């Protein structure tokens, strides 16, 4: 083993003095002597196992459901009950206790069914015999510290049925004391090494286990502990000590003969020293504490370094340690109160067990770091020289650290924070917000711990009031400036109120051809070109599209070809997309045929490219409706006109051709059928007067199937578990919306317009008066 064979005398939580650990089994205070250190032989001691009279705990009758009040200091001050309320009490987690053994028949160590929670198969006693240089293992782990029964009391604080912090954890006791007062430090190390291979938590209410001897070089005590912790994912929780000293200074004062185990590279977050607080929450008078550079007195081996001292302070944590009630090992039911950092240490071990039982995939190093990150370091606890990282707070440790993200750190999937995910959908798809699977979605914090979140509040149902002011502004005519260029006519109109990009549209045409650029245009370019009065309807003038290029070419006396390319207005998107300004692009090509002056027919096909959206569905983050959606929509429009009256109908039908799933999105669009049937009548009575009435189905997404795959948690091996469910929405071409406009001009100077719309989602009316000067 290469350890210094030093006798540990009675007094737990005494400081380390050079290469000698001097501890005591009494809870607080106590002296104790030391023996001359003995340098071990290179091959280490011989290990002997003696299997004589193995202990078997008694079987109690079932107790019934445990009713733990959680009002004890070790439970209430650290907020352990918050973890209990969430169903986590340390179940499935083993705490190894290096101490004086345990009374295996005390009622504290049994579950509600009367079955022992002690791992008595692996429980041991380890004794070192100096004369024969042997380590002796036996099954006799009974608490030998009569009358204090220190090991029973410590174990009860960690995981006792009524008095423990983690009342359903499993106990692995190892007795290292060869009588009721002394033990060799080589036996203590052997116990730590033994437990490290079997349990994630080693509780040692023994001080002097941090500033370890470097005597022996590569075979030193420091290197043996370092090797054990490096080879095992185990945390060593030790007592700060009961001398009221600033023990962090030892690293600098005795730098040449001892090193601080807690700050060794490679074992970060595997060693914690525990400070005791009194009933008022202040540093107990007897408790050791980390201290600061001002505590490095005399002639130290090395000057104090503030960065190193800060790292030492960061390895200490504070919990109650005065008058802690727990099991008394003298019988099977009694309790007793003791004070000391010995009593504080198992509170931290129990807190680690609660965290580990809360998340299966959590490593012990992560659990230690979380306890540090979430400790209460406000007020008096902000003084790291006295309280280390502060007061342990289990409730805070159970809350997310950092931003909640849609995937774990170990996942290669694109991740979004919770606030980055939102969606805007029409009311016809409002059933999406009631899906049970979206009410318990796993998001992950900086330690890949899953937290179940209801994300349905991020689903916005679009039922916004009609914006008549925007409608009047977008639909008003602008003065047209026209220039004759031979056979061509150049027309332009401007919005003089806009200082940037005042050009509204630009048109170049002759008798057979026409080319247009428009800053804004309606969604249905085909119908608006066939019938200019269409833009007087609110629904036809939402200005969904921005930059538009359009072309018309006569192919004969009654036949013409038209095409266009449109990009969505950047200001239109309901949900912000930070990755791409252009969310949609529409390419249209069609034929218009007029067999007589009264009849006209138009056919067109349209390719619609959308990002993070689909036909009015707008999403971002985990609610992206597809990184790239391509839809094809075919249209047939028929119109009859007579004496200024036009009767028209339009049928649109299409489907989603391709949907590329957006990385990190929960939504996959499997199918989408698109359609709209519109029928209406308009009449133009004069250049300034007209009226119109039309009916149509409001939602053009008439049949869609969405597949949602949402994370539900993480398995013990770190794999994200998910649930997949489908959502189907069916609509109809049957009109559910009616819209009316009436426009009247008076004396060529005063005019008014009245519009009304009644739909399943947006209903209202607007009135505008204007005067031309």
From TrEMBL:
Which intervals hold domain Peptidase S8/S53?
90-390
Protease in keyword set: yes
A Pfam family matched by this chain, by name?
Peptidase_S8
Tell me which residues this entry annotates as catalytic: 99 (charge relay system), 150 (charge relay system), 342 (charge relay system)
**The keyword Nucleotide-binding is assigned to this record:** no
Query: What InterPro entries does the record tag this protein with?
Result: Peptidase_S8/S53_dom, Peptidase_S8/S53_dom_sf, Peptidase_S8_Asp-AS, Peptidase_S8_His-AS, Peptidase_S8_Ser-AS, Peptidase_S8_subtilisin-like, Peptidase_S8_subtilisin-rel, Peptidases_S8_Autotransporter
Keywords of the record, alphabetical order, are: Hydrolase, Protease, Serine protease, Signal
Question: Which family is this protein grouped under?
Answer: Belongs to the peptidase S8 family.
According to UniProt, the name of this protein is Peptidase S8/S53 domain-containing protein
Q: Which organism is it from?
A: Thiomicrorhabdus immobilis
